């Protein structure tokens, strides 16, 4: 446009005037561009300043502008939330915090500026003096706060570091005096000698455990522990650790995490040769310090001693698996069949071998993998041959305990067995074609169906070398018949059926181990090695059986009933002249305890420096 004006004026103005006009127009053009740019710049500056307030960047200013819009501009919470990117609920929370004085709108310290609290020389002197008295940074900060000087713990720690003080070692609440005022604190566990306890007199909450001391003395516990090579410490001997585990089993403690219930019982500690029982963590760590060799040696030494005492008959041995369940979310354990629950679940597969005559457990194994389960019958045989040489035993187990191939191995080593044949539909369909059926009598008073019908024959099975004797049983109270197989070709059928029928005894002893000895309670916050816990269960069950046989009228009672009538309860314990005297309170069953021939049982406690034990019943 400007160029067009210059061209048109060239026709009417002489040349000097045209030059002047062009110069004027050029100056005017550039001034207009400058003014336009200046307007844009000023507009942008004004818009940037408005954005600084309407779209704040810093969080502290964002909250401020949101509250200003809410209180000053009277905008509803939904509008404020939409403008500043909050939710309506958060805007209401900001309003509440502002009205209650809980919001801080102070601008953060700029980068590079020092944020350290300046500590005066007098304050430094106080901090040094308190640290010399072994006070922690937190305690010093609290003392300064009591004097009206609010200094953070971090600042106190910085000052101590600048003054050259190292950090204090971690201390217990007891050491720093933070326990509840007047609270009783358990003693630190240590081994004791009977001479140190001379003249002591105290009450024991679980004094029934001393009733087992004479029977433990028969097993010569110190020798058992020494032969197994169980480790100990300078503070707690190996015998004391073992007896601590056993004492908890004998008094029916549900979980090792409940050991705190006995932390103040000096009687239980005395039984184990300690002032008090160890803490639960120490027990857990000790159990995992035992390897499989220690546990097997202890088991072998105990069972060999029990066989020497004549506790086992050994003619019939019942075998069964049991899955100890694990309820944790993450577990490396395999899934096994849990018969009591009727399903597969994660757990530790354990094995129990029971003497059918005495009903005592004589062998245990734990942490068995699926691929190892079928071979366990050979491990039981190897173990039992070392205990009682020359004893012809019969192994009794169910159909899923092992394979026909391992049955053939048992037969090749001259071992008799009775088990069930895996029943198929074809076998059941062919029953009607079989004959003859004969009626037999099972001499058992409590048997509901003592007169079943049987059919006998010789059969050959896959993977088994030779022939097996098959006894099919009907009329035994079950809808489907049972197919017994055995390599005993000469024994009467009545005895074969009767021996297998007594296999339920091992299931009963496992049930008792679960109910009273809390075998399934191993998924505890305080974990113990499964096999060691199973072994102590076996030993405790044997001790209960030995005591029950001395109690007139209670010879066949289970451990739970023996505990309820005889073991549970208080007693006074007194140590005088190297003698441990335990006086039991008056109870209804004390006459039965008085009739026990205690004088014929060992009356010393070898693990307590040979102290004499005297039991009195009021």
General description of the model:
There is one protein chain. The protein folds into four domains: 2-54, no CATH class; 120-185; 201-294 and 528-617, no CATH class; 312-511, Transposase Inhibitor Protein From Tn5, Chain A, domain 1. 30% of the residues are buried. Helix 11 crosses helix 20. Helices cover 41% and strands 14% of the residues. The chain has 22 helices and 15 strands. With 618 residues, it is α+β, with helices and mostly antiparallel strands. The chain is extended, with a radius of gyration of 43 Å. A hairpin with a 7-residue loop joins strand 10 and strand 11 (482-486). The strands form two sheets. Strands 2, 3, 4, 5, 6, 7, 8, 9, 10 and 11 form a ten-stranded mixed sheet that branches.
Question: Can I get a quick summary?
Answer:
With 618 residues, this protein is an alpha+beta fold.
Please tell me the overall pLDDT. 83
- Main sheet makeup: 10 strands, mixed
Number of strands: 15
Q: CATH homologous superfamily of the largest domain, by name?
A: Transposase Inhibitor Protein From Tn5, Chain A, domain 1
Strand coverage percent: 5-15%
Shape: extended
CATH architecture group name of the largest domain:
Alpha-Beta Complex
Proportion in helices: 40-55%
Give the C-alpha Rg: 43 Å
Kindly provide the name of the CATH class of the largest domain.
Alpha Beta
Distance between the termini: 130 Å
CATH topology of the largest domain: Transposase Inhibitor Protein From Tn5, Chain A, domain 1
Question: How many distinct folded domains?
Answer: 4
Q: Which class best fits the helix and strand makeup?
A: alpha+beta
Low-confidence stretches: 1-13
């Amino acid at each position: 446009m400007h160029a067009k004006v210059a061209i048109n004026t060239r026709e009417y103005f002489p040349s000097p005037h045209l030059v002047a006009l062009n110069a004027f127009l050029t100056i005017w053009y550039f001034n207009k561009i400058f003014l336009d740019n200046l307007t844009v710049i000023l507009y942008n500056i004004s818009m940037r300043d408005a954005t600084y307030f309407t779209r704040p960047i810093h969080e502290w200013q964002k909250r401020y502008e949101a509250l200003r819009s809410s209180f000053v501009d009277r905008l509803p919470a939904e509008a404020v939330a939409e403008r500043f990117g909050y939710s309506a609920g958060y805007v209401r929370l900001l309003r509440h915090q502002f009205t209650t004085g809980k919001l801080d709108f102070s601008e953060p310290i700029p980068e590079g500026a020092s944020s350290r609290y300046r500590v005066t020389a007098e304050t430094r002197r106080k901090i040094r003096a308190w640290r010399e008295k072994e006070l922690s940074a937190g305690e010093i900060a609290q003392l300064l706060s009591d004097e009206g000087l609010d200094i953070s713990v971090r600042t106190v720690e910085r000052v101590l570091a600048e003054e050259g003080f190292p950090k204090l070692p971690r201390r217990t609440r007891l050491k720093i005096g933070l326990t509840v005022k007047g609270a009783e604190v358990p003693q630190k566990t240590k081994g004791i000698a009977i001479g140190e306890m001379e003249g002591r007199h105290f009450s024991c909450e679980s004094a029934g455990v001393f009733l087992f001391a004479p029977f433990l003395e028969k097993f010569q516990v110190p020798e058992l522990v020494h032969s197994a090579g169980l480790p100990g410490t300078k503070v707690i001997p190996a015998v004391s650790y073992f007896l601590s585990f056993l004492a908890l089993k004998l008094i029916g403690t549900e979980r090792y995490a409940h050991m705190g219930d006995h932390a103040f019982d000096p009687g239980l500690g005395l039984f184990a040769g300690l002032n008090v029982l160890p803490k639960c963590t120490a027990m857990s760590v000790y159990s995992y310090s035992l390897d499989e060799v220690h546990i097997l040696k202890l088991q072998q030494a105990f069972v060999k001693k029990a066989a020497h005492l004549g506790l086992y008959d050994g003619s019939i041995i019942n075998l069964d698996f049991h899955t100890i369940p694990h309820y944790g979310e993450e577990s490396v354990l395999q899934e096994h069949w849990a018969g009591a629950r009727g399903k597969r679940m994660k757990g530790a597969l354990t094995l129990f071998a029971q003497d059918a005559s005495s009903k005592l457990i004589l062998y245990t194994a734990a942490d068995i993998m699926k691929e190892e389960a079928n071979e366990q019958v050979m491990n039981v045989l190897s173990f039992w041959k070392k205990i009682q040489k020359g004893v012809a035993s019969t192994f009794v187990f169910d159909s899923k305990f092992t394979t026909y191939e391992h049955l053939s191995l048992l037969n090749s080593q001259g071992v008799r067995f009775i088990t069930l044949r895996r029943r198929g539909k074809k076998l059941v369909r062919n029953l009607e074609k079989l004959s003859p059926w004969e009626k037999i009598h099972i001499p058992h008073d409590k048997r509901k169906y003592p007169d079943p019908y049987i059919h006998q024959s010789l059969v050959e099975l896959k993977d088994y070398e030779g022939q097996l004797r098959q006894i099919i049983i009907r009329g035994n109270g079950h809808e489907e018949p049972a197919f017994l197989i055995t390599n005993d070709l000469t024994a009467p059928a009545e005895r074969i059926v009767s021996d297998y029928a007594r296999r339920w005894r091992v299931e009963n002893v496992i049930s008792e181990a679960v109910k009273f000895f809390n075998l399934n309670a191993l998924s505890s916050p305080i974990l113990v090695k499964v096999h060691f816990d199973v072994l102590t269960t076996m030993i405790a069950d044997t001790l209960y059986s030995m005591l029950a046989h001395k109690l007139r009228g209670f010879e066949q009672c289970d451990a739970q009933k023996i505990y309820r009538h005889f073991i549970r309860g208080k007693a006074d314990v007194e140590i005088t002249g190297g003698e441990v005297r335990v006086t039991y309170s008056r109870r209804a069953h004390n006459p039965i305890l008085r009739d026990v021939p205690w004088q014929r049982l060992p009356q010393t406690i070898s693990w307590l420096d040979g102290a004499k034990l005297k039991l009195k019943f009021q």
